[in-house]
Design brief:
Blueprint: E1 2-7, E2 12-17, H1 40-45, H2 48-56, H3 66-74, H4 100-139, H5 151-161, H6 174-188, H7 203-227, H8 237-241, H9 255-277, E3 281-288, E4 298-302, E5 309-318, E6 322-325, H10 327-335, H11 341-353, E7 381-386, H12 397-405
Parallel strand pairs: 3-7
Antiparallel strand pairs: 1-2, 3-5, 4-5, 5-6
Amino acid sequence: MRSHLLFAAVGVTVTVASPVPNPQGTGTGADSCPSDALEPKTWTDLNVDGVLTDAAGNYTKTKTNNIQSLADFFGAPNFFCGLDNFCNAGQPCLPVEVPAWYAVVAIQNWNNYMNCLNTAIGFATSILSLKLPEIVQDLFPDPKDDVTPLATMIQVVNGVLAVVPFTGAVSTASTVVSTGLGFLSGRVKPPAATDRFLAWSDISSSMSEVLKDYQTAVSNSVKAVLDAPIDDPDNGINGILAGGNFLGVSQNFTQDDVQKLVIDSITVSALGLALQAQKAFVVRFFNQERCNDENENTLCIQNDGSSTFTQWSLLKRSGDANAGSLIDESKLLLDKYGLTKLEFLKGPTNCFDNNDKKQLTNPFNQGLPLDSKAECVFNVLVCDIDNGNGGAGKQGIVDFCKENQSLDI
């Protein structure tokens, strides 16, 4: 049986082999060769890790493409994997006998996965290329290109790629995402992009850089695994397949499938980044005697057991020392993007409080979470002013936040 993965972002159809176990064990050919379900339990029950350990001492090691040499040892000399090469394990006992066949199936699935990652990078950068210019138009009409590290986009792409499973359908299940993020950081080693910035005025060029750099990382990873001795501690296929996580059946997915899972998180994060780039900040006023939150950029919550309020306002420096209210921007966050005041006003202060009062905490080094409401996904600078303790005094909000709380505004 063969299935097709339609990759709409780049207009190509990738065909991958989907092996099917034969439980009957009757008849002729593959049907005469009994096999079990393609799942990690089968891998463990049949000790396929042991099969690969034994093979490491008996197959013919080569300078390149040790995986092909391993397959040849198992009886499949025409098994060639790689990017844009879709190696096929065939059916049980045709040509590889069980239990070695399960190892070849898992290698096939690893190869499918790496090819899917390579194309999903295009999905991710395409989604960003479509969404970010809209946010620039709405919130950042005078964009600056030297403020947002390009590494933040790598984290976003990591989050997108995490929904691509080793086998099965794309998913936001925590096991799929955590396994994917662990594999990406440990095996693929995404590009760091530490010395470059996101070009808000030319999103497509930045996304082209991310696409090129990330696909290079995937290509390097695939080549390293193909060429390494199978028991190499760093890149050997035995370590990658250990435990049977790659034993399963691959399923189709499209850019639309991926986009539905990731678009909310990408959008909310990018809204915060666009405001960060303009040095917008939330001021949290403690012990307010009166509070009016009719404006879209302000939230009031009365303190328990007190007549005072805590007030949150989204502001930006306006002139030398004045703070301007971001009412229009807040209206867009509410009406167009569907955020609540709790999310874009109180949310950044929760992130601030829960991370030792550190500004713009980014706990997503491995990848952006898929839950758009997760703490710190939307984030801006925070300034605390206690009106029960003199407030900002004569300094004004901007000067107080700069001088007393070291905000870079």
